[in-house]
Design a protein that fits this description.
The complex is a heterodimer. By secondary structure, chain A is α/β, with parallel strands linked by helices. Helices cover 30% and strands 27% of the residues of chain A. The longest helix of chain A has 16 residues. The mean pLDDT of chain B is 92. The termini of chain B are far apart. Chain B has one domain. The chains are: A alpha/beta, B mainly alpha.
């Protein structure tokens, strides 16, 4: 997709830390495009380069190589003054003055923002009205994340960057935040979020990318990504039969009387297996057939290279 | 006019004003310490052969007070402010918003600038009455005040660039707190020192500001001398500002 029609466009972006011989490329040739109104999730293990990537998109750091464009043609660093009234951002952590109350913190940001929503409304949306007079240092980790989200969305942004928005939240807080994110999606806000929670990405994202060692190892919609990974057939087999009797390809494993077939051709193998069971009058106990989950796809990507770190340029 | 920049400055000023009063230890560093130093320096200066060098006690105290307040109320406070805000990731967070980088720094410092200017004006007025001296070159005094504020703010940003933690601020500001007043004529006027040394120390960062402030009450500097000192102070400010621009860190080192 052309950069001109996108809200976020990264093209072969690299980010290098350090100088001379002690350099480390945290982001290595990342490219992706986020269309207007889309929610794009960046997944990855710790140190995969997600935050380093987001910081370049936010304009907090310039790419060492490659280019980033927001709203089609704007450079996040050079065109910062034009971009910022249209974007909101939530850092991975911190960014608050601990001696201010939640209300004072939102009030401060309202004074630094073009056309902010009312402070009381922002606190209410984040579920923090009852904590308005509490010092930031006395808020829980989850409450601080909600306060951060309230600030990031204070100006009705067209593009929103959320770096691990639900980290440290309890289940209730996480679902409330998801609801708020869905509302923003519904209003056409373009959102880029990073997360460790696969369930979060699966639930919210239109498109996602799995980063590994500074590169995008897999990208697309959830069905696109899991389609590249083997599906699973699982069932119990009567004692007189063994796994070797089954007419299926893929990998067959048997444990505690339960057989698991891992296959790249779910439909064909399932059909063959059911036909075989029918013809041999075999009852396959608790038969299940399911495609790969996002978690399995993620683990397959994250487990590549045996966890070896690559350092130096 | 209420441009976005003005609005941002006002907001950051208001927040720092709130925080200044909320954290009581600020009063110690910004009010008590400079006041104690001034009383001490008055005693020290009484022992100096000021009359032999044609130095009036009143204008000297005005320039001493200016130097002390610029260093304690402004320089050390703003250095601590920048480092603390950086450690809390507040500077980084502010950079994700609409505020321009220079405004983030200027807005945070503006409250301490206001306090420092107020302190200097009040102390200078009190000293003028006490010693019975009136300003003879108000423009020189104004130039001294402006260059001093710009210089100390730029120096604070540079010092903050060198500090890794809030704890290291104390160590990093020591040279400015102890050495700068000694070599810039804040405590002991340069005229009292050996001629060659006194003349060489004119080029110390704060000397020009101190000379300008004193001349505000004595009228001792000619117009070219006033311009030279203004240019010198501006050059130091430009050097520190340039260094800060290149070296200032917006987030903690990892």
């Amino acid at each position: 997709m052309a950069a001109e029609n996108s809200h976020i466009h990264a093209q072969d972006v690299w980010r290098r830390y350090g100088t001379g011989k002690k350099t480390f490329d945290a982001v290595r040739g990342v490219s992706f495009t986020v269309r207007p109104g889309e929610l794009f999730a960046l997944l990855g293990t710790n140190g995969a380069g997600k935050t380093s990537t987001v910081e370049m998109l936010e304009g907090l750091a310039a790419p060492h190589r490659g280019g980033v464009r927001l709203f089609g043609t704007l450079d996040p660093v050079a065109d910062r003054a034009r971009i910022r009234p249209r974007t909101g951002a939530m850092l991975q952590e911190g960014g608050f003055i601990s001696h201010l109350t939640a209300q004072e913190t939102v009030g401060m940001w309202a004074g630094l923002t073009t056309r902010p929503r009312p402070v009381a409304q922002a606190l209410d949306r984040a579920g923090l009205s009852h904590r308005a007079a509490v010092m930031v240092r006395n808020l829980s980790g989850g409450e601080r994340r909600r306060l951060d989200l309230a600030i990031a969305t204070l100006s009705h942004p067209d593009v929103l960057f959320l770096d691990e928005p639900t980290a440290g939240m309890d289940v209730e807080g996480r679902h409330a935040t998801w609801q708020l994110i869905r509302e923003l999606q519904g209003r056409g806000t373009t959102i880029l979020l990073t997360t460790h929670y696969l369930e979060e990405a699966e639930s919210l994202a239109d498109q996602l990318a799995i980063m590994h060692r500074g590169r995008i190892a897999a990208s697309g919609s959830v069905p696109d990504i899991v389609a590249g990974h083997p599906s699973t057939l699982s069932f119990g087999l009567p004692e007189q039969w063994t796994a070797g009797d089954l007419p299926v390809g893929g990998t067959v494993a048997e444990r505690d009387g339960r057989v698991t077939v891992t296959t790249g051709e779910l439909q064909k193998d399932a059909a063959r297996l059911l036909a075989w069971a029918e013809s041999h009058d075999v009852a396959l106990a608790r038969f299940t057939a399911r495609p790969a989950s996002l978690e399995e796809a993620f683990i397959a990507v994250a487990g590549r290279d045996g966890g070896r770190r690559e350092e130096g340029a | 006019m209420n441009s976005p920049t003005t609005q941002h400055m006002k907001t950051l000023f208001r927040i720092e004003w709130t925080l200044f009063h909320r954290i009581k230890s600020n009063y110690v560093f910004v009010v008590l310490v400079p006041a104690m130093l001034l009383f001490t320096m008055r005693s020290v200066q009484k022992q100096l052969p000021l009359r032999e060098h044609g130095i009036e006690a009143g204008p000297l105290m005005v320039s001493t007070a200016t130097g002390v307040l610029l260093i304690f109320s402004l320089y050390s406070s703003v250095t601590g402010l920048y480092v603390a805000r950086r450690e809390e990731l507040v500077l980084k967070r502010l950079r994700t918003g609409e505020v321009a980088d220079p405004v983030i720094l200027a807005g945070g410092a503006s409250m301490y600038v206001a306090i420092c200017v107020t302190q200097i004006v009040v102390v200078a007025a009190v000293l003028s009455v006490m010693f019975g001296v009136m300003p003879r070159q108000p423009l020189a005094a104004a130039a001294g005040l402006l260059t001093g504020i710009a210089l100390m703010t730029a120096m604070a940003a540079t010092t903050a660039a060198l500090c890794r933690t809030v704890e290291s601020v104390l160590v990093a500001t020591l040279p400015a707190i102890f050495v700068l007043p000694m070599i810039s004529g804040v405590y002991i006027p340069r005229e009292v020192l050996p001629d060659a040394l006194g003349e060489a120390l004119l080029f110390a960062p704060l000397s020009s500001t101190i000379d300008l402030m004193r001349s505000g009450w004595t009228g001792e500097l000619t117009a070219p001398e006033t311009l030279t000192r203004t240019a010198l102070a501006t050059a130091w400010t430009a050097l520190f500002a340039w260094t800060a621009t290149r070296r200032f860190r917006w987030e903690p080192r990892t």
